[in-house]
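Dear U.,

Please find below the material for section 3 of the report. The protein was modelled together with adenosine-5'-triphosphate; I have listed the sequence and SMILES used, followed by the predicted complex structure.
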Amino acid sequence: MDSVQHVGGDPLVIDNLYFSYGQLTIFENLNITVQPGEFLSIIGPSGCGKTTLLNLLSGFLEPDSGSVLLRGTPLKPEDPHFGYVFQHATLFPWLSTIENVEFGLKMAGELSPSEMREKAMHYLAMVGLKGFEDYLPLKLSGGMQQRVSLARALTLEPRLLLMDEPFGALDAITRDDMNDELLVLWEELGQTVVFITHDIDEAIYLSDRIIVLNRPPHGIYKDFKSEIPRPRSGQETRTCDLFWEYKKDLRNDIEEVAKSAVVA
Ligand SMILES: Nc1ncnc2c1ncn2[C@@H]1O[C@H](COP(=O)(O)OP(=O)(O)OP(=O)(O)O)[C@@H](O)[C@H]1O
Ligand SMILES: [Mg+2]
């Protein structure tokens, strides 16, 4: 059953999901299927439930009813099939860069020390940090630390990569660079990605599909597929007509969602 296939080979299915924090209902009958290898971004105003949704996907939170299934099985936080990248790099300050990258592999406990080192070096090089393996996190910039977090998630070769505003704290130029690097990695590795962001440009630049979340408990406000061709490339993509069209529409959508909260 565990045949080797494209790393993004399974759909992620959110089916009839209900979730509340006590009296506060966040989702009622939420249904989303994320296709294998799809790059899905989720945007929406603060408090609409983006992080909650990601925590439900990863198994950090459990639905009240309904399910989140990958290959027919609920995900658990310790599941090696997914990697999680948080908004702020969550590195152990006392471990070197390479030791931080190896951490998930150590937890999985399947490889010998030399195999772990080889794999960690491979992904560290992929995110452009070859030569920094002995640095402590404090000696790295914010963007470099976030790359270490990304390398750590990638070493597990997850079929599913969950990212919660991973580049939100970076300056605009560094974020654009990280977006390009992420796309190169994604095109090479083919994972399914669920990417949370506040940034409309970032969502359009990266995604195959964008979901705008409504205010709780209304779930999806809009779900659409991007027709911007790939490969995408910097200014050319960011200045194409479709990019501007999506940007205008998404801005309006988010304003509508924000307004509906005031009325409610
Ligand atoms: N542990 C918790 N207990 C109770 N309520 C919570 C908890 N975590 C989040 N909430 C509430 O659930 C709602 C959704 O929160 P969530 O963090 O998912 O929003 P978000 O869309 O990620 O917002 P942001 O864009 O600000 O990160 C908010 O009203 C928040 O106050
Ligand atoms: Mg959040």
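For the text of the report, you could mention the following: Residues 241-263 form the longest helix (23 residues).

Regards,
Y.
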